[in-house]
Amino acid sequence: MTLVPPPLSLYVHMPWCVRKCPYCDFNSHGVRGTPEYATYVDVLLADLDADLRDFGDAIGGRKIETVFFGGGTPSLFMPDLIGCFLDGARERLPFARGAEITLETNPGTVEHGRFDGYLAAGVNRISFGVQSFDNDKLHRLGRIHSANEAADAVRQAQDAGIDNINIDLMYALPQQDLAGALHDVDRAVALQPTHISHYQLTLEPNTAFAANPPPLPDDDAAWGIQEACQERLAAAGYGQYEVSAYAQAGRRCAHNLNYWRFGDYLGIGAGAHGKISDATSVRRRWKTRLPAAYLAAAGDAKRIGGDSVVDGDDLPFEYMLNALRLIDGVPMADFTERTGLPHATIEPALAQCLRKGWIDGDAAVLRTTALGQRFLNDVIEAFMEIGPTAE
Which pTM does this prediction carry? Predict the structure, then answer.
């Protein structure tokens, strides 16, 4: 069985932030001194060159459909540096016409007028890490912006001509009640972004919050908040298309959809993860995490933190971990095209999930029911360790 090459994206990791938030488990590092931003962009392009040498045959003639600058806080990088990287990437790879190019932005790190520069550099989508419009909650979360500063930043981006904007919101925050969570949603909706990411605060290992847990709403309260906010977002015209993603019509995030549909992506930057498929296998590669070590590697083999082919026994679980998050599901045929495994591999797990009411009975589409969405972790676990031995 051969794999059909899926769409290709590019993820670029910018590891610095002004201050590490207590809930954050991402590869981000508080700024100390003056980071070597310009040098980092040069090293990003050297990293890309090296990956293209390694994966050139697998990438073939595929175009870059989406680019995502994540972090850390990419908006610490001036527009000319973002433009420098994009120009260099275009010299090395073909970009699809109208490719979605997203820049994650902390409202506390952008200056008035800079959005014009990002737009001129090629960025056409901005994702704001707002998290809350309650100043007390922002303080508890370690954010460096206020609610008004967040709203002003969104308006400035819109005034600059960027018409594709996401707002990140968290719920089940320390001592948050339903009224507070709905207030956050209402403030976000009033700004009319095209997309809202609404996700639950969780205590991740090796974070300050995990070491000293704040008082959070219990599971029942969190579920009630989620349901009420979903209804409020739907009423405002934001359709839920993934567990934590809501969009106006035609404004779903193409980059994240590629992840959830088990597409391919090059991962460039300190700690960045990538996934590349060839005709017979799926390979994951990740880069060394520490910015200093990544910079010192300057595109050589030491930049690689790990590299492995996904074992066939793990492919069903890895595929479902992504695809089952989508509310509308995915075509059943995509499983075979993107894993190279026959449908028979997952038939026992599908039957089990169908009996429990976790997936619907459409033979052409793999889709969870409302019950399956509530117990999504259990649904995904049903597909663990059921690899090619099931043929």
Answer: 0.94
Residue-wise pLDDT tens digits, 106-144: 998 776 569 999 999 999 999 999 999 999 999 999 999
User: Which residue type occupies 343?
Assistant: H
pLDDT at 264: 98
Distance CA 71, CA 27 (A): 7
Is there a domain that residue 198 lies in? Answer: yes
355 and 206 in a single domain? The answer is no
Inside any domain, residue 360: yes
Quote the CA–CA distance of 125 and 68 in Å, as a whole number: 9
CA distance 385 to 372: 20
Domain of 376, in residue numbers: 315-390
Write down which residue in 258, 277, 295 finishes a domain: 258
Pick the last residue of a domain from 240, 258, 276: 258
Establish whether the linkage from the previous residue to 72 is cis, with ω within 30° of 0.
Answer: yes
Residues in contact with 269: Cβ distance below 8 Å, sequence separation at least 6, in sequence order: 11, 12, 13, 14, 15, 44, 47, 287, 294
